[in-house]
Fold this protein.
Amino acid sequence: MTKKMPQISSHARGLLHQKALFLMPIVDFLPLLITPETLLSNLKAPNLVILDATYFLPTEHKNTDAEFITAHLPKANQFNVDKIADTTSVLPHMLPLTEEGFEAHLQALGVTPESWVVIYDQKGLFSAPRVWWMLSAFGWHRVSVLQGGLPAWVNAGLPVESGHASPASATKQPLGLVFNPEKVKTLAAMMENITTSAFTVLDARSAGRFEGTAPEPRAGLKSGHIPDSMNLPFTALITPDGYLKPVDELKNLFKNVGIVDSDTPVACSCGSGITACVVALALESVGHVGAVSVYDGSWLEWGGHPTTPVVLAN
């Protein structure tokens, strides 16, 4: 069922007359980030696949299925990061183990070799970058992230739908996924880096959690941070309306934590591998050319391990 939202904003009306960017079957250029108004003008693109990648922290006590049924973008299907994952791991939403397994999930969502995948979440810019990173880790780059997510879409007066998603047209077309191990850091690699300093570690958690002065939201975890890591809370990268900040502001934030050269290798970490991907997306958005990876286990693995070293604030 489609809900009619309040009158469309003047800014959106001003853009509707523009020629759609993505109406051709094969697209030569796809933006990393897309605004609600630009997505609106391309909803009829034949190869468009919209994925709701909403994830709620356990402490939020919200159900992603129920929230999706209440309101979602037109044409959207759900991408559940806890189900499209390595379900054999004791850690939540870890990266799928094989290209074949991940490809089957994408095919079930209607993704074809020509698809343009647009990802959003219902919190603004929180978990959508996680799915962007998952796709990029398997070599899929025909993807954009919606700036501001569902809140920005609604605030622009654009239409939403309610109810369950329409079944996707599943396909068996090979997607040519190829896993790139440089996109992922393991516990062993993070431990080795303490000695080698081969890459800079950016921790996307809050300053309190990083310093060990605020409690971890999950029981049983040590407080503090990985030795020699730097703190850059993901919230510092995002505007109040859920957009990534302008490039110059982002570059300054990265410089403040020691990322002065654009070719510096960086590993992003957080609580459980979700918001670390916001930092990775921001690095991509400013043209960072050095290897950018995500520590998939993040603090849930490091802080829960009996022998990993931690640092507390002085």
Observations:
- Residues 53 and 187 are 26 Å apart (CA to CA).
- The chain has two domains: 2-161, 181-302.
